[in-house]
UniProtKB/TrEMBL annotation:
GO terms for cellular component: membrane. Coiled coil: none annotated. Keywords: Germination, Membrane, Transmembrane, Transmembrane helix, Transport. It comes from the Bacteria. One of its GO terms (biological process) is spore germination. It is found in: Membrane. This is Uncharacterized protein. The chain crosses the membrane at residues 42-63, 75-101, 113-135, 147-165, 192-211, 218-240, 274-298, 305-329, 335-354. It is a multi-pass membrane protein. Its main location: membrane.
Length: 369
C-alpha cells in the first residue's frame, strides 16, 4: 500500500489514541453512562476499562504472531477468505454507521452550542471535507498533528476539570455505587464498546514503528483514556449532580460554559479551538481506517482514493435525521449495545483460533524481536 511507506512512533500512536478515544468525554458518552450508573458513572468507566483490558490483551497476543499484518489481513489468515472478508464487511458497515452517528453528534454540538445560525449541512460539509483532506494526508501526518496538539488539549482539559472539581460538590458522587452495584456493572457491560476503537486500531498495527511500541502504546493509551473519561464523568456529576448531568446531551460543553476562570467572560472560547482541531483529527483517523478496511476488502492498494467516496456516504447519511439530538443519541446507544458483545467475543475467538493453529509456538522469539 502506498501509505504504508511511513510509520509512526509510540508518541504519535498514543496521541492518536488520546485524541480519538479520549475526546469521547466531550460528546454524549457520559450521558449514556449516567443513564444506568447514575452518579457512579465514573466507577462504571473504570469497570469498562478493566473489562476492555482482556480482549485488548488477547488482540495484542494475536498481533504478536502476525506483526506484518493488519486487522483485515489477520481476519483472512485466521478465518479464511470468505468468512474473513465477511467479518471485515460487517465491521466496515458498523464502523461507517458509527462514524456517521458520531460525526452527526459533533455537528449537532457545533450547531446548537457555537454556530447556532449556520445550517447543519454547511457545518457537516466543512467538517467532513477538512477531515477527508486530513485522512488523505496519511497516517504520518495524522500522528504528527496529534502529537503536536496533544499537550495543548490536555492542558485545557485539565483546566476545565480542575475548575469543575473546585466549584463542584463532593457529596454529589455519594453513594459511591449509585442505586446499586448491579446497575453500575450493567452500565459497564452495555457500554464497553466505547473502547472498541482499540480493535479497529489494529488496522494500523503494522504502521507503528515496532510491535513493542504498539503493545506498550496500546496499554498506556487504554490506561490514559480510562482515567480521563472516569475523572471527567465524576467532575460533571460533582458540578451538576447526576439528575442534571443525565439530562444534558453534552455535559462537557455545558461545563465549559458554566465554569468561571478569573476575568474570562466566555470561557468556552479558550477550549473550543483545541476541541475543534481534535475533532478534525478524530474523524480524519476514522476515515483513514475505513479506507484501509475497504481497500483491503476490495484489494485496492491505492486505498486513499476511496476516502472521498466514504466521506460522501457519511455526509448523505448524516444529514438524513430530522431530529439529530434525540435520534442520534438513540442510534448511538443501539450501536454501542451491538458492538459490546462483539468486542468482548471477537478477540478471544481470534486468540483461540491462533492458538489452535499453533501461531504462538515461537511466541517468545516473536515478542523479543
Amino acid at each position: 500500500m502506498k501509505q504504508n511507506k511511513g510509520k509512526i512512533g509510540i508518541k504519535e500512536y498514543i496521541a492518536i489514541i488520546a485524541l480519538t478515544i479520549g475526546t469521547k468525554l466531550s460528546d454524549d458518552t457520559p450521558s449514556i453512562i449516567y443513564e444506568d450508573a447514575r452518579n457512579a458513572g465514573w466507577i462504571s468507566v473504570l469497570l469498562i476499562g478493566a473489562m476492555a483490558f482482556i480482549p485488548i490483551l488477547l488482540l495484542i497476543k494475536v498481533f504478536s504472531a502476525h506483526k506484518d499484518k493488519n486487522l483485515h489481513e489477520v481476519f483472512i489468515y485466521l478465518f479464511g477468505k470468505i468468512l474473513g472478508n465477511l467479518i471485515s464487511i460487517l465491521i466496515l458497515i458498523i464502523g461507517v454507521a458509527a462514524l456517521t452517528v458520531d460525526s452527526g453528534i459533533y455537528v449537532d454540538i457545533i450547531g446548537t452550542m457555537y454556530f447556532t445560525t449556520t445550517p447543519s449541512l454547511i457545518i457537516y460539509g466543512v467538517l467532513m471535507i477538512v477531515c477527508a483532506y486530513g485522512a488523505k494526508r496519511g497516517i504520518e501526518q495524522i500522528g504528527s498533528v496529534s502529537w503536536l496538539l496533544l499537550p495543548y488539549l490536555k492542558i485545557t482539559l485539565f483546566v476545565a476539570l480542575f475548575f469543575s472539581l473546585k466549584e463542584g460538590h463532593t457529596g454529589f458522587i455519594f453513594p459511591l455505587w449509585g442505586e446499586s452495584r448491579l446497575e453500575v456493572v450493567k452500565a459497564a457491560g452495555k457500554n464497553v464498546s466505547i473502547f472498541v476503537d482499540f480493535l479497529l486500531i489494529g488496522l494500523i498495527a503494522p504502521l507503528v514503528s515496532s510491535f513493542k511500541d504498539y503493545k506498550k502504546g496500546t496499554l498506556i493509551g487504554l490506561g490514559m483514556v480510562t482515567a480521563e473519561i472516569s475523572l471527567a464523568t465524576a467532575a460533571f456529576v460533582m458540578l451538576f449532580d447526576y439528575t442534571t448531568a443525565e439530562m444534558l446531551s453534552y455535559p462537557f460543553h455545558e461545563t465549559i460554559r458554566y465554569i468561571q476562570i478569573g476575568f474570562l467572560a466566555n470561557v468556552e472560547t479558550l477550549f473550543f479551538p483545541f476541541w475543534l482541531v481534535a475533532t478534525f483529527i478524530r474523524f480524519s483517523f476514522y476515515l483513514y481506517l475505513s479506507a484501509v478496511m475497504l481497500g483491503g476488502i476490495l484489494k485496492i492498494k491505492e486505498f486513499e482514493y476511496l476516502i472521498p467516496l466514504i466521506t460522501l456516504i457519511v455526509i448523505f447519511l448524516g444529514i438524513a435525521p430530522d431530529s439529530p439530538s434525540i435520534l442520534l443519541y438513540t442510534m448511538r446507544q443501539t450501536i454501542l449495545m451491538i458492538l459490546s458483545p462483539a468486542f468482548m467475543f471477537l478477540p478471544p475467538l481470534m486468540w483461540l483460533i491462533a492458538k489452535i493453529r499453533g501461531d504462538f509456538k515461537n511466541e517468545t522469539v516473536l515478542e523479543s524481536s
